[in-house]
Amino acid sequence: MKRSNELHDFARLQYSDEESGYFLIGIDESKSDLNRLNLFYQLEDYAHFVTRTVAEGLDTVNVAAQQADSINGLNVISTDMFGAMVATEEPLEVYYRLLVLESDRNFYQLISWTSRDRVTQFRPIAEEIECSFMELAFAEEETDPKNDVGGSQPAGSGDDADE
Questions:
Q1: For 51-109, what is each residue's pLDDT tens digit?
Q2: Residues 6+ positions from 102 with CB-CB distance below 8 Å
Q3: Which of 27, 91, 131, 148 is the right S-S partner for 109, CB 3.0 to 4.6 Å?
Q4: Distance CA 77, CA 75 (A)
Q5: CATH of the domain at 37
Q6: How many domains does the chain have?
Q7: What domain range is 61 assigned to?
Q8: Does a structural domain hold residue 144?
Q9: Which are the contacts of 95, defined by CB distance < 8 A and separation ≥ 6?
C-alpha cells in the first residue's frame, strides 16, 4: 500500500492500493476535544457513531458482525459492514472493516474498504494491519500543532508500506 492524501480530509493516516482496490484511513480524536464539545462517549457509543457515519454514505447497509476485543492494550470494537451505492451508473457493492480503538486520551478509527468481491483476499491484510496498531507516546504538554508529537499508525508504516 502507498501513502495517499486523497481519501479523507481529516485522516492522519491514508494508504491505498489502487491496483488491488484496498483503501485505509486512520482518524484520531482527542477525548478532551470531544469533552469541550460536551460529548462524553463510551467506546460502544463512539463505535456506533462511527458505524452510523460510514453507513450514511451508502444507499444500503448490512452490519455483518460486531465484536469487542483488545489490540496491544487498547480496547477495540470491530465492525464488518457490507453496503452498496446504487446512485451510480452501475451499483457499487463494498465491504468496510471498521475498527474503533480507545486509549486514555483518544479514540482512533481505522476504516478500511474494498469491493465486495475482494473480501476474501482483503480480510487477512486488514487484520494484519489492525494487529500492528499501537498508540505512540504523547508529550506531557501540548506543543505547537505543526509538530507531530503524538499520534498513531500501524507499526512499520512509512511512505510506502509493503502490504
A1: 999 999 899 999 988 899 999 999 999 999 999 988 767 888 999 999 999 999 999 99
A2: 43, 46, 74, 75, 76, 108
A3: 27
A4: 7
A5: 3.40.1000.10
A6: 1
A7: 2-137
A8: no
A9: 80, 81, 82, 113, 114, 115, 116, 118, 119, 122
